[in-house]
Amino acid sequence: MKVGFIGLGAMGLPMTRNLLARGHQVTVASKGRGPVEVAVSEGAVDGGDPAGVAAASEVTILCVPRDADVQEVVGAMLPALGPGKIAVDCSTIDPDVERAQHQRVTATGAGFLEAPLSGGTVGAEKGTLTLMVGGDTRTLEEARPALEAFSSLIVHVGGPGMGQVVKLGNNLIYAAQMLAVSEAFAMLAKVGVDLAKAHEVYTHATADCVAVRTRVPFEGVLPDSPASNEWKPGFMTELMAKDLDLALTFAGRAGTPLYSTALVRQITTTAIADGYAREDFSAIGKVIRRIAGI
User: What pLDDT is stored for residue 291 in this prediction?
Assistant: First the structure.
């Protein structure tokens, strides 16, 4: 399949590699030249800009950070879209903004899906991401061969905007997990508990969760955790803060309370002020450690 990819960041470049490994013809564009050159050296074609990528592709995937980036890329793609083309947005943005992109793209006769991701950079590299898809079922089936190149689970969760709503729910749960894990392990460390033994207990007890299994915010407890690898991001603090803002805003419109989300969002603000914006979001654990005097 002829696949386009726009946005070769920490997620986009490994996703592109998986598309190439599956034998797709991949045309790319990104704001930075470095990742484009890497992708081209591995078999991709430089599309120049979003319109060039869309013109060369049956399915064009975009994965960019923010609402404004998606709006800009979609606007640039529109002249090259029409019947027989599909655009897939893998970014995490406001659900109502996403619904507007559905309308812009489908007005050209092209298909549009949102497919926000879960799995972080590790999942992107391994091709095991989970996709939460909003949009038309038939469009999803047409785009599925491209999406399967970098995912192990694709779930159609509803119409336009619903994929983003599900993704925001996923991230607010994960953020709350991370705060609880940070507080628990700080308490244990303060009184001298063996953190590795506590981790063994928690992974076989009711405390078990993804944050416990992957992101204990103390060096040396988990060899593959960000804390044990200079806080290298699987998902940056500033991006988690952005997603929590999206969740708080959307929940405000929906009239639903987000108490824990508001609290962890405040702590991400402190983490960013402490210089951890581009570290993994588990660096909120360093804020808790500092306050605890550890």
Answer: 97
Q: What is the pLDDT of residues 273-288, one digit of tens each?
A: 999 999 999 999 999 9
Give dist(CA 92, CA 242) in Å, integer. 9
**pLDDT tens readout for residues 16-59:** 999 999 999 999 999 999 999 999 999 999 999 999 999 999 99
Q: Which residues pair with 156 in a beta bridge?
A: 133
Burial of 211: CB neighbours in 10 Å, binned 0-12, 13-18, 19+? buried
Residues 4-13 pLDDT 10s: 999 999 999 9
Core vs surface per residue 235-260: b (16+ CB within 10 A) or e: bbbbbbbbbbebbeebbeeeeeebee
With tokens 């990104």, the residue in question is 30
Going along the chain from its start, the domains and CATH numbers come out as 2-159 (3.40.50.720), 165-292 (1.10.1040.10)
**Using alpha carbons only, how large is the chain's radius of gyration in Å?**
20
- Axis-axis angle for helices 284-292, 162-190 (nearest 10): 30
- Strands, E, within 94-215: which ranges? 111-114, 117-118, 129-135, 151-158
b/e 148-171 (16+ beta carbons within 10 angstroms → b)? ebbbeebebbeebbbbbbbbbebb
Q: What is the pLDDT of residue 149?
A: 98
d(CA 255, CA 261): 14
Q: What six digits make up the tokens of 116?
A: 């926000």
- Compute the Cα dihedral for 22, 27, 30, 36 and give only its sign: positive
Of 167, 190, 197, 286, which is the active-site residue? 167
Establish whether 286 is a catalytic residue. no
